[in-house]
Specification:
Length: about 500
């Protein structure tokens, strides 16, 4: 009979990509960080899920499915940028935020609009390289530790006797080979066993190396200095060959070409052990990470999972005047954006990138203009329009308490670093929300950003005084909020400059 085997513990399933989740679960993930704006969350959840659905479609129709591009319409501070940024972070997708108005800074021609795709590729390269380095970091750290131990305990030079021992018998006509020197080691039972001197040195060296390893892990060697060989990161003169801002194009990067052609000279540098370990770990990571694979993976992510968020798109939209016609600079930028959003091939220093399936999210307040003021071709490439609602006082209370990164939790973490426990009462949160809403009502409405200014003013005195003897717990209630902010709220000029 065979004995029953104990079942192995089940391995945890890998966390799925956000695109693999149903839209309801995607909205649930966004709810952990963003309060309200259900219509916007619903729209981006469908857009992200459609990418996974496109990947499952038959090959003959997959390339025909266009992205679910969206325009967010709403005042500042209601969460337009935060939804896009948090979506990209949760999805692990390359993300780039660009302001449309910057393309009009240099006049009619403007900055090269294709630079947004190049910047997105650079972001993807950094993202994928970081992921690859995290996978092999432990192994690279072990290799760096072995190299550091070699520096702390250099190998002994070869003894001259070792080279001449073998020739002693052959140099003359007679004379047998002399045996290598031996050392007799007495064991625990009293018996003596022969051991060569070389074996004894190796054993002694091994024990010393292990002792150094323990001291290194405990930080007892942090003050010791070692000399390491490092490869310089770059040559300062080559920076002159980089394209100037606004002049980006499809030219070859001559700086990188010359850097590849010039010899890689090592530079000796004397530094302390922690810094030496960091330098050696970086070198080992560069050896272990295959940049060709990183580039291929990055280009694939950009083309199929990349997200470009175009903010302030309302700044390049303007109503046509019967007398003067359209604003040449604004409409010129729209026509430059059109081929990128429609789908084109952009040359980058890592290769060609197709923008056909990059997800474009645009946002604007549209106080003066309206989405229909965009040129019709560009409007057609943003078929989904979502209006975000202004935030109320109740929304401010939820923003301060519900999200995982709520402001109250952030300040509690900052104060906890000083060994002090911070507590906000419910009436204190409501009072802060009320003051923020009143400030928005009396001045320009900047949405949830007003909470940051109110909280910074409220916490200013406490953060300046800490650390302070005898303070281990601080409770902030509504009375404390009114006391610290009363002078600011009652003085119109003071409120305007501070809040």
């Amino acid at each position: 009979m065979t004995e029953p085997t104990t079942p192995l513990a089940p391995t945890p399933d890998p966390v799925p990509w956000l695109e693999e989740l149903p839209p309801r679960q995607i909205v649930g993930e966004l709810d952990r960080y963003i309060v309200g704006q259900d219509a916007a969350k619903r729209a981006v959840a469908i857009a992200v899920r459609n990418r996974w659905r496109r990947a499952q479609a038959p090959d003959e129709i997959r390339d025909e499915i266009t992205p679910y591009n969206i325009i967010f319409i709403g005042p500042t501070g209601v969460g337009k940028t935060e939804i896009a940024r948090r979506l990209a972070r949760l999805a692990g997708a390359p993300f780039l935020k660009v302001e449309a108005s910057k393309f009009t800074e240099v006049g009619y021609v403007g900055r090269d609009v294709e630079s947004m795709v190049r910047d997105l590729v650079d972001s993807a390269i950094n993202m994928v390289r970081t992921e690859r380095e995290d996978e092999v970091y432990d192994q690279a750290e072990q290799r760096a530790e072995e190299r550091l131990l070699d520096l702390l305990l250099p190998a002994p030079p070869p003894s001259p006797a070792a080279g001449t021992a073998g020739t002693a018998g052959t140099a003359g006509t007679a004379g047998p080979l002399r045996p290598a020197s031996q050392v007799f080691v007495v064991g625990s039972a009293g018996q003596a066993r022969p051991e060569s001197a070389e074996d004894a040195d190796l054993e002694r060296r091994k024990r010393s190396r292990e002792k150094l390893r323990e001291m290194l892990k405990k930080g007892e060697l942090d003050e010791r200095e070692v000399e390491v060989e490092v490869t310089p990161q770059g040559y300062p003169m080559l920076e002159l060959l980089q394209p100037q801002p606004g002049m980006e194009g499809e030219q070859i990067n001559f700086g990188e070409m010359l850097q590849e052609m010039l010899p890689k000279k090592k530079k000796r540098r004397t530094t302390r052990v922690p810094e030496a370990k960091r330098l050696l770990t970086d070198e080992e990571l560069k050896k272990m990470v295959d940049m060709d694979e990183v580039v291929n993976e990055s280009l694939d992510r950009v083309e199929n999972h990349g997200i470009i968020f175009i903010d302030e798109i309302d700044k390049i939209a303007g109503e046509r005047s019967q007398n003067t016609g359209p604003d040449v600079s604004r409409e010129g930028v729209q026509r430059d954006l059109l081929p990128i959003v429609e789908g084109s091939t952009v040359q980058t220093r890592y290769g060609y990138v197709r923008t056909d399936h990059i997800l474009f999210l645009a946002a604007g307040a549209f106080h003066v203009s309206k989405p229909s003021d965009l040129i019709p071709e560009l409007q057609g490439r943003f078929p989904i329009r979502v209006e975000l609602q202004p935030l109320t006082q109740v929304d401010f209370v939820r923003i301060m308490t519900e999200p995982e990164n709520a402001l109250t939790r952030q300040y509690q973490a900052l104060v906890a670093a000083e060994g002090v426990e911070l507590e906000f009462t419910a009436d204190a949160v409501e009072e802060v929300a009320r003051m923020a809403w009143v400030a928005n009502d009396r001045m320009e409405n900047i949405g949830a950003r007003r909470l940051h200014t109110v909280m910074a003013t409220l916490m200013d005195e406490l953060l300046f005084d800490l650390p302070k003897d005898g303070i281990k717990r601080v409770t902030i209630d509504a009375a404390a909020v009114k006391e610290r902010l009363a002078a600011v709220m009652e003085n119109d000029d003071l409120r305007r400059y501070i809040l």
